[in-house]
TrEMBL record:
<feature type="domain" description="Glyoxalase-like">
    <location>
        <begin position="8"/>
        <end position="111"/>
    </location>
</feature>
<dbReference type="InterPro" id="IPR041581">
    <property type="entry name" value="Glyoxalase_6"/>
</dbReference>
<feature type="domain" description="Glyoxalase-like">
    <location>
        <begin position="136"/>
        <end position="239"/>
    </location>
</feature>
<dbReference type="Pfam" id="PF18029">
    <property type="entry name" value="Glyoxalase_6"/>
</dbReference>
<protein>
    <submittedName>
        <fullName>VOC family protein</fullName>
    </submittedName>
</protein>
<dbReference type="InterPro" id="IPR029068">
    <property type="entry name" value="Glyas_Bleomycin-R_OHBP_Dase"/>
</dbReference>
Amino acid sequence: MIRWIWAFLDRPAQRFDDCAKFWSTVTGTELSARRGEHDEFLTLLPDPALFAAAGVKMQAVTGLGGVHLDLDVDHIPTVVRTALDLGAELVANHPDYAVLRSPGGQTFCLTPSGRGRGTPAPATKAPDGTLSRLDQVCLDIGPADHAAETDFWKSLTGWNFEQGRMPEFARLRAAESLPIQLLLQRLENDRPTSAHIDLASSDIDATARWHETLGATVIDRYEHWIVMHDPAGATYCITARDPRGV
């Protein structure tokens, strides 16, 4: 059903240029030309020599911003109907895309297929040789919504479901090669479902140090991941996973 998935980084307009430069650098991509009625959109473009397809876009927004998903599908009305039957809410229905909210409150868009295809971009090499790759969106779900939200994303995507090593984590991964997978995280306290970006890294401490030189801030450290803020104060995580995707 899902032909391609885009991680959309929504960042405050007043910090958008700094954020775009930051995410372009840490993903080894170039910034596309700005587009949209207010020049609010851009795409992070992999090096053409890699023959890789983009999977990350950015949007300048009012407010604090966050992360949402764009899901490219063949027939938007059919998938809208499916999402509504699974408990989603229709926020806006446009001629060429639809905006919805999951049962727990996470915004996502259904968009036309054909915009993205090919091989996802490989890992990025930092100046010290450390590899990292933006390859995951983590859905942060409160305990009251966790069961319904998990069932919703499992059914909507049809992807392979894997329970994590820690009981509060589970992963949804497509059988085909797509640029973004989903991590479902059960929080300790109830709040509307939100999302953040995860990067896989061959050395989380080295990647964090590199990001700090580019304007990011370390917020918290755990054994297998480091919580960061990007230049706009948006949360993301550097996680100890193989950035080569194997």
